[in-house]
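haha ok so turns out i had the wrong file open the whole time. this is the CORRECT one, sorry everyone. sequence first:
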Amino acid sequence: MFANFFGIAHFPLSAQLIGTMIMAVLLVVAATLIWWLLEKKRPTFEPQDRNRLLIIVCLIAYTLLFCLNTAYGRLCLGLHAALQSRYVIYLVPAVLGLYFFLVGLRHSVTRNLLLSGFLIAVVAASLHRDRIAMGVNRDIKQTWKKCYLQSENITECDKVAGFPIYSPSPQQIQRSHLQYKLEYLKKTRQNLYLDQ
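then structure:
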């Protein structure tokens, strides 16, 4: 997931290596800050320093817990499941926490060097777009929509599109009242029926 955040997901070995390195850096930063907060021999922090460290730890810990839960939950689906773009937003707190940590470093040369590298990585990541995956998802949804507007049969359109639009289980479709919801959209001329 971390490699995907920085746009390195399509090279499996380097993605795993770089993603592991990023996670290791976050673990070390979080552990170091927790150690500083708990250490009794160290001079006490100013209240604003202590609060800043607590915020950084919380941001990084939240993302690491999310990654742990996601890895456990998606274990049966394989590594490709971790590359879904919907997970990227939950990695942002750790990146923000890492930025706050780097900004707070006291040694100016080290801080400037690390911030420059961090800035380059974040800018490079923001320029990366997976146009192929975005196109495939768009094509699947357009195929399903076209089929549904013609036949109004959810199961048939799932087969035509090659991907279930809502759920892989027909029982879940019935429990969700998807057909009723689609009929409501048609009656009120919303979403799929907006331009009809």
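The first helix runs from residue 2 to 5.
again sry for the mixup
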